[in-house]
Each structure stands twice: as C-alpha cells, then as structure tokens.
Automatic annotation (TrEMBL):
MF annotations from Gene Ontology: ATP binding; cysteine-tRNA ligase activity; zinc ion binding
Cofactor names: Zn(2+)
Name of encoding gene: cysS
Record family assignment: Belongs to the class-I aminoacyl-tRNA synthetase family.
Name this protein carries in UniProt: Cysteine--tRNA ligase
GO CC annotation: cytosol
Length: 495
RNA sequence: GGCGGCGUAGCCAAGUGGCCAAGGCAGUGGUCUGCAAAACCAUUAUUCAGCGGUUCAAAUCCGCUCGCCGCCUCCA
C-alpha cells in the first residue's frame, strides 16, 4: 500500500516514489505579498500542510519549501497607491500572512525563500538560458523563447497555435513570439532595481521559482504544488525555464488544488473567489468568527481538487460536526471509571472492529489522493461507535472495554490531527465554545444558574408548569437545558 | 474557439467495474425523559443529469446530448 497522488502532468493517480527513497521534496508557490490573504489562500496553505503532515505520519522525511514573491508589478503598483516603498509593503504583508498562518495553527515550511534574496541565482539561470539560445535580451528586458522549447505546453496541454487564437495577448514589439515571457524586466525610474548584465531591472514572475527550487531541492524534485490557476502560465513557464536550463526533468508530480467559490447573489451562481472580482473573504475576517478547526473541517470536507463553495451554513455545519467529534472524546474522558473484575465485555465484535480498523480505513482514504472527505467520514463513523458503546457502558466496567475506548480516543485524535483538528483537550474546546456562544446570549451565566436552581426546586415539587416555563424562558434566550443524572447542564443554541 | 473539470438523496459529500451506493447537516418514527434536550436505534437515492454502447457485471469504461465551472490576463 502506498500513497497515490493525482499528477496534473499525466492526468493520472500515481504512486508516490520519491527520488531519494523515504525523502519527499516538495515545493509550493506561496503568496505575492501585497494584500491580506483570503480563504482561497487558506485552502492552499491547509492542503499542503495536510499533505506534509500525512506524508510525515506515513514515515516520510519531507523537505517543504514555500516561497514569498516579494517583488512584482502588483506590489509596486500597490505601494505607489499607498505611498510606501515596495519593500516595506511586501514585508508588512508577509507579517500579516504569518498572523493568518498562526491563526490556522500551521507549521512553517522548512524553507521559506524570498525572491528578493535570490536575485543572483535568477540572474545566473537567465544567463544559462541565454547561452543556450533559449532566451534573448532586448533593450534591458530578457525573454524566454517558447519556440525553442519543444515541450512547451505539456503541463497545461495546449499548443502555441491554439493559444494565440483566442488569447488576449498584449502586443509587444520586443518579443519574437507573442507567447514569449519575461525573465527580466528593465526598471523605469523610481522602481526597485537590481544590477544585472542587462542593466538595472527586476526578475519576471516565473524565474524565481525555477531558481529557488533548484537551489533548495535540486534540478529534479518530487512534488510541485499550487492552485489550479497556476497551471498556466506560471507552472508551464517554470517547466520551460528549468528544463531548458538544466536538461533534466523538473518535477515528477504536479499537485493542484481547486478553488474556493462563493455565491454571487446577483447571478445566483457560484464563481471563483478572486481579487479581480472583489468577492473575496479574508482569513482575518474568518478568524474573528470561527475557531480555526471549524475552517479546517469545512475545507477538508471536500477533496482538495474539487471546487468548494463557501457559505455561512457550511461553516455552521462544520462547527456542529467538530463539536460532535469533541463531545465523543469528552464522553470517554468523563467515564466514571470503576473497573470491575470481570472478563466480559459490552463491546460487540463489530464495534471492536470499527475501532481497531479506524487507522487502516483512514489511511486508505488518505492514500487515495489525500481524500480527506472520506477520511473524515471514518472519524465520524468511529465517533458514532464510541457513542454507542458509552451509552451501554455499565457502572462497573470491564477493563477490556475501558482499554478499547481509550484506544478509540487515541486513534480518533491521532487521525484527526493529520488534518489539523482535535488539537485541543475536548473539555477545553467545549468549554470555550460555550463561553464564546455565551457572548451571543442575552443573559449572563449567573442568572442562568439561578433560574436552573429555581427550576430544579420546582421539579422536585413536581411543579412541571413552572419548570417548563423556566425552560422555555431560557430557550427563548437560546439557552438549552439538559437534565442528566448528575444535574442540569446548559448550552447556548446557535441558529 | 482551444484545453481541463464537474453533474450522486432536501443540502454538503465519498465512491480505485462485482457484498445492502460511505459520512456529515437537515427531516421523520422510536428508546430514554415528568415533558424536553443530548445520545442511541430505525428510517430517508430499486438509483447515480439524459440517451446509447462495451461487459457475465458500470455511478464507475467509451460515445453523444443537455447543464454548470475553471484556465487561455494578475490570481490559491
């Protein structure tokens, strides 16, 4: 059994076979730092974090590189609008990015190279391409000659002729072929500039990834990832640059995740969330409303390659589901343990098997191109089994049953953490959730406790009318009561 | 126009040719409860957009039709 991953290059699921056995080298295109990150960036970060976590869980050593594009036309334009130096703007949004990543609870990649710190590497690569007649300099610019690279289009499956037909290509007299793309751009007065053999300028967008991946991962590495929108032109161009320069295959597997879409109220249709459409929701906004694990459960409830529609309702569903998992764990934590000296068991073979096979079923789902949706289904299935057992657990329990429940608890948490959830003690999560929901309640906890006491007094006197009146009163304020064997507990109902 | 993808229950979403088509949310009936809530049990797609084809066998493979989305311009 092995991890199978969908490779955009071959359009097939393929077994992962690292060039260096047991060591996966992964490069992911990171952000261009000129604005706050949106939920689409969150999906990207979460998906690759999950992939890294899962591969490590499987025993692989993973070297994970993710870059920052900190010099680019968009950065320059935005900096000019705001009257700040581009370098300052870029640095600021890298900080903001880290704040978002911390909210999501993500580990840092092993290496996070910045474009501006690798200008020399890029210049070296461009010189190699010019020497090989794969690139040419014109008036301080350098362009890649796509016609000199026969494999151009192999990732995005398009031919040069087809692209020209419908493309919106800006006419550029300097280019020999309309699809040639810039490796180096000469700088106008006042723009950031680095010295180069072609005069002062800055790198084109694509060359940084070719240069930095080569530096940190070598000429050929295992996996290169990014959003589907990067397939063309960004990744296509990276392949062209790297393979033309190195004369070696660039990347073995290309992994691309799908978009987050959002409903357009005007057209009632889903559309990609993007800056140009102005319909994006920032991670910062989400962080004010939702626990990060809710966002993760929402994002991983769909396989990473499929589109994902964001909605408040979907987030509320995810919250309900996450709470369900935590409550199941809390149920095990709350067992009043009185091990009895009995060999018997209340756990059926089928239930025992559900628990014993959880890890295996989880791995099967994840091995199949990181099918988190299916994997999560296995977690819920296990939680259901746990609940079933808890319900029939006697006051004095068989040690074997307690051991099995502890095993279940451990297994659910361990698998959950691969997708970034169940990181907190269940009680902490549930208590905090309760506190957070209290904020929305129109009544304070002390008053609730007073009412509960009055109601329990009424119940003792079998004054059901008063008892129900108090319960209804609290329910009207979204406070839900639960009468259990150990007294009455309450929670805030969300609607 | 070129290329890629999607269409599975009220909603979300798995399904790598062959036991009863996972799982979640919502719903319904029941157990429990003074009544509730939670939990549990049962139930909710004789069917996988439609039509053909391949096969002993297809949601899964092939073709066509319809609908939707994305890329081809910056984009996760």
């Amino acid at each position: 059994m092995s991890v199978r991953i969908y490779n955009t290059l071959t359009q097939k699921k393929e077994p992962l076979n690292p060039l260096e056995p047991g060591h996966v080298k992964l490069y992911v295109c990171g952000i261009t730092s000129y604005d706050y990150c949106h939920i689409g960036h969150a999906r990207s970060s979460l998906v690759f974090d999950m992939i890294v976590k899962y591969l490590r869980y499987c025993g692989y050593k993973v070297t994970f590189v993710r870059n920052f594009t900190d010099i680019d036309d968009k950065i320059i334009n935005r900096a000019n609008e705001q009257g700040t130096p581009p370098s300052q703007l870029a640095a600021r949004f890298i900080d903001e990015f880290y704040r978002d990543m911390d909210y999501l609870g993500l580990q840092r990649p092993d290496i996070e190279p910045k474009a501006t710190e690798h200008i020399d590497d890029m210049i070296g690569l461009i010189e190699t391409l010019i020497a090989k007649d794969q690139a040419y300099a014109v008036d301080g610019d350098v362009y890649f000659a796509v016609e000199h690279f026969p494999a151009y289009g192999k990732l995005s499956r398009r031919r040069l002729e087809d692209m020209q037909a419908g493309a919106r290509i800006t006419i550029n007299e300097k280019k020999r072929h309309p699809m040639d793309f810039a490796l180096w751009k000469h700088s106008k007065a006042g723009e950031p500039a680095w010295d180069s053999p072609w005069g002062p300028g800055r790198p084109g967008w694509h060359i940084e990834c070719s240069a930095m991946s080569k530096k940190y991962l070598g000429d050929t590495f295992d996996i290169h990832g990014g959003g589907k929108d990067l397939i063309f032109p960004h990744h296509e161009n990276e392949i062209a640059q790297s393979e033309a320069a190195n004369d070696k295959p660039f990347v073995n597997m290309w992994v691309h995740h799908g978009f987050v879409t959002v409903r357009n109220e005007a057209t009632a249709e889903n559309e990609k969330m993007s800056k140009s459409l102005g319909n994006f929701l920032t991670i910062r906004e989400l962080s004010e409303k939702y626990h990060p694990e809710i966002l993760k459960l929402f994002i991983f409830s769909t396989q990473y390659r499929n589109p994902l529609e964001y909605s408040e309702q979907a987030m509320l569903d995810a919250e309900t589901g996450l709470t369900r998992l935590y409550e199941s764990i809390a149920g095990i934590d709350a067992i009043k343990r009185k091990p009895a000296d009995i060999a018997g068991t209340v756990i059926t073979d089928k239930e025992a098997d559900k628990i014993d096979s959880l890890e295996e079923r989880f791995r099967q789902a994840m091995d199949n191109d990181f099918n988190t949706a299916q994997a999560i289904g296995q977690l819920f299935d296990a939680a259901k089994t746990v609940n079933k057992i808890l319900r029939k657990l006697p006051e004095e329990q068989a040690p074997a049953d307690l051991a099995r429940l502890d095993q279940a608890r451990e297994a659910i948490i361990r698998q959950g953490r691969v997708i970034g959830i169940l990181n907190e003690p269940a009680q902490v999560f549930l208590e905090r959730r309760k506190r957070e929901t209290i904020r929305d309640a129109v009544i304070d906890p002390a008053a609730i406790e007073t009412l509960i006491a009055r109601r329990n007094e009424a119940r003792k006197n079998k004054d059901w009318k008063l008892s129900d009146a108090i319960r209804d009163e609290l329910l009207a304020k979204s406070v839900e009561l639960k009468d259990g064997p150990d007294g009455t507990t309450w929670s805030v109902k969300r609607d």
